[in-house]
Every structure is written in structure tokens, then in C-alpha cells.
Design a protein that fits this description.
By secondary structure, the protein is mainly alpha-helical. The chain is built from seven helices and no strands.
Length: about 140
Amino acid sequence: MGRASAGMTHAGLTAAVIASGQLGAVKNEQDIFDDIDSRLSGIAAYAGAAASKLKEQLAERVGWSVGNVSQLERGLQGYSDEGLVLLAEALHCTPGQILEVDPTQDDAIWSLWERAKPAQRQTLLEVAKGMVGKTGTDS
């Protein structure tokens, strides 16, 4: 079944799910939404477990406790230059990328750069240089 549009009514969703046969015999709309909620809860629990495992692995790589990594992630603990270098090495990136790149922004320049093929990167550089000037100070 495809994604339901934002404007789909409960009755429309019910009809679509029943028509698709994905949930089998359905007694009422609440059964459908309970099933969807259960699936989403399972996904969220899995994502939480995966995130927890990643924190453990990162903590192990940099020689910190999971609590320290968690506090740093939530902004409750600062970082040192040495700690930033350790994190960058563990994450296979540069310290600058940790400070400047937001991986949740798919349309940000760094995200575009990461997805670009080598030839496309050259084109991106040429376009950027043409827009801001070779030194970045040209008007």
C-alpha cells in the first residue's frame, strides 16, 4: 500500500487498508490505528536500541563512557580540542564537519557534496566559485 495522503480521512484509510488486504479481517478503524501505532512503536524501539548501540561503539572508540557521549550529544557537556579530534577520528570525518555539518539537512551544501559523484563535485565547485568568486571576497 502506498503512503496515505495527509488529507485522507479515517474512513478512507480504513477502506484503503481493507482493500489492500494487508491487515486481514478488520473490525473497525480503531483496530487499524492500533496496529499502525504498534508498528511505529516497534520501529521507534528498534531505532532507540540502534542509537544506544551506536553510542556504546562511539564511546568505546574514543575511550569515554556512554554517559559522556550522551551528555555531549545533548549539549550538557562541552568538548576539548583533543576530544573533538578523537570524535572525528572515530567517525571518519574532520573536526570541522562535526562542528559545521548538520546531517539532518538533506538540502544543505555538505549533504549535496556527500551525495555527488566526483565529476559532479567538480561542477559544484565551479558553480560555487562563479557565484562567490574564487576567494570568496569578490563582489
